[in-house]
Amino acid sequence: MNKSYFYVYLIIDTVTGKLYIGSRKSYIKPEDDIGKHYFSSSKDKEFMRLQKLYPKRFRYVVIKEFSDRKEAIKYESKLHKKFDVANNPMFYNMANQTETGFIASKSKYKKIKESLKKIKHQQGKRNSMYGTQWIVNHEKKLCTRIGKKEKIPKGWEKGRKMDYKHLPREYLEI
Predict the structure, then answer these.
(1) Are both 56 and 95 inside the same structural domain?
(2) Residue-wise over 124-150: b if at least 16 C-beta within 10 A, else e?
(3) Would the pTM count as exceeding 0.70?
(4) In terms of residue numbers, what domain contains 94?
(5) Tell me, what CATH number does 28's domain have?
(6) Which of 75, 53, 104, 108 is nearest to 7 (CA)?
(7) What are the percentages of helix, strand and coil residues in the chain, rounded to 5?
(8) Over the chain (174 residues), what is each successive 10-residue block's mean pLDDT?
């Protein structure tokens, strides 16, 4: 089995001085990963575009390595809180990492939404739920998706229960 590496990294835009702090799990050494194979998980399209167009403009630094993902996220969230990266104009980060997830600033959240709208992210046929609906059978404790125009089978009703077994459409017994 491949060795896992967990680390927190810093990306420095040498032109603007803006920063990005992130964490990562990798199967290659961090110094061989960041800035060579991996360039961040940022949702800031402009930041990602700049890294691709001008790779020499950015410096990639491994801040600290950890023995597990939980410790890396804990440290990343500590740094995010210290610098309030979501609200700090000197950071490309659009959200603050917490130990349980992300919290985006209102202005950066608006930017994310606008960016996703611009690229029509998950709209219409790009949405995996397009033209389908969830149905549930409480007696069998099963859920599946069917076409929106399909008739709901006897014993089933519209809806979804997350703790029921989810079946692919082809296994539906009608």
Answers:
(1) yes
(2) eeeeeeeebeebbbeeeebbbbbeeee
(3) no
(4) 5-118
(5) 3.40.1440.10
(6) 75
(7) 30, 30, 40
(8) 90 95 95 93 88 94 96 95 92 86 67 69 71 87 88 88 68 54
